[in-house]
TrEMBL record:
Record organism: Coniella lustricola
Signal peptide as annotated in the record: 1-21
InterPro entries per UniProt: AA9 (IPR049892), AA9_LPMO (IPR005103)
Protein name, as recorded: lytic cellulose monooxygenase (C4-dehydrogenating)
GO molecular function: hydrolase activity; metal ion binding; monooxygenase activity
Top-level enzyme category: oxidoreductase
Residues of the Auxiliary Activity family 9 catalytic domain: 22-235
Family the UniProt entry places it in: Belongs to the polysaccharide monooxygenase AA9 family.
EC number: 1.14.99.56
BP GO annotations: cellulose catabolic process
Keyword DNA damage attributed: no
Length: 356
């Protein structure tokens, strides 16, 4: 079976031969409709012809397909990438709907995080001051301790894409969605992390009544945040996803098992005597928790492909045939595929040569 790390290793091999590194979002699918993102070629289109195509992706001058370093966390470049300017087009999504972000072939480990910021009027307004945008985290994926797997590897396994559910509580309005991978393969060094923020304009319709409390882009991170500056080359017992707290109604999808036709079994246990256990069988199992990180035990459960999850409060799991397996707003949930059984060796197979 090809696993995620082997996939990643293959990508690294390709990169080592001189293929352009890093990555960016090439397009999105919002409620089933595809919209092209910003292309690096648009920079040259603008230089040569004075115009460039419309896209929902913000203009950015990351001509090396590169990243923003922690040394720039207090500059406007962290907001929507280098010298970013508002996109000239806007996609539409319904509250409760989905947005899929499609990346170029992605090579690095790290968390995947998505924020939204509401625009005072139209997010395509060239005079929009991005430094005033207040970002609310609506989705995050970090590090799954039981399988020692990064969200970015789930993204890779999912054809280099990441799907975000727009919280139904999010008010109707014009938003900039700031979708980001933070590559952590260099995070053992101060300022070694790499942020890849990608902004797109999306109008949210049919929204709810959440009161949004956002954070300015220049205040999202510091170079010494525990999820930014740490040693990724050891067995991690926990990982703190960088940035402000997830909004109520947001999604934590740290655990995402996505391989092949493997049947996933999720066992959820509660320490409060009344254990609730729902087994989920799914080809794509996603465990979600709005407020708590999944706590896991390495204790093998009866079945070889099962990861046991322990919670101090209450846990519940719901299963569908092919997508969401477990969901809990108060406690923890986790799901795993048969990959979990081989997780012990994954870390060691993650070679340092992913440094690009
Ligand atoms: Cu890179």
């Amino acid at each position: 079976m090809v696993n995620k790390f082997q996939t990643a290793a293959a990508l690294v091999g390709a990169l080592a031969s001189g293929v352009s590194a890093h990555g960016h979002v090439t397009g999105i699918v919002a409620d089933g409709v595809y919209y092209g993102g910003f292309s690096l070629d648009y920079y040259y289109d603008e230089e040569n012809t004075g115009t460039f195509p419309e896209s929902v992706g913000w203009w950015a001058e990351d001509l090396d397909n590169g990243y923003i370093a922690p040394t720039a966390y207090n500059t406007s470049d962290i907001i929507c990438h280098l010298d970013a300017q508002p996109a000239n087009m806007t996609a539409t999504v319904s509250a409760g709907g989905s947005v899929e972000f499609q990346w170029t072939a992605w090579p690095h480990p790290g968390p995947v995080i998505t924020y939204v910021a509401q625009c005072a009027s139209d997010c395509t307004d060239p005079s929009l001051d991005k430094s005033t945008l207040e970002w609310v985290k609506i989705d995050e994926g970090g590090f799954d301790v039981p399988s020692q797997t990064w969200a970015a590897y789930d993204l890779i396994a999912n054809n280099n894409s990441w799907t975000v559910t727009v919280p139904s509580e999010l008010p109707t309005g014009n938003y900039v969605f700031r979708h980001e991978i933070i590559a952590v393969h260099g995070s053992e060094a101060l300022n070694g992390a790499q942020n890849y923020p990608q902004c797109v304009n999306i109008a949210v319709t049919g929204g709810g009544s959440a009161t949004l409390s956002g954070t300015l882009g220049t205040e999202l991170y510091t170079p010494t945040d525990p999820g930014i500056y740490f040693n990724p080359y050891t067995t991690l017992l926990n990982y703190t996803i960088p940035g402000p707290a997830l909004m109520v109604g947001g999604t934590n999808q740290t655990v995402t098992a996505t391989t092949g036709a493997a049947a996933a079994t999720s066992a959820v246990a509660s320490s409060s005597a009344s254990a609730v256990a729902v087994a989920a069988q799914s080809t794509t199992a996603i465990a979600q928790s709005s407020t708590a990180a999944a706590a896991a035990s390495s204790t093998a459960a009866a079945q070889s492909s099962t990861v046991a999850v322990q919670s101090t409060t209450v846990a519940a799991a719901a299963a569908t045939s092919s997508t969401v397996a477990a969901q809990s707003t108060t406690a923890a949930a986790a799901a795993a595929t048969t990959q979990a059984s081989s997780s012990c060796n994954k870390k060691r197979r993650h070679a340092r040569d992913v440094v690009v």
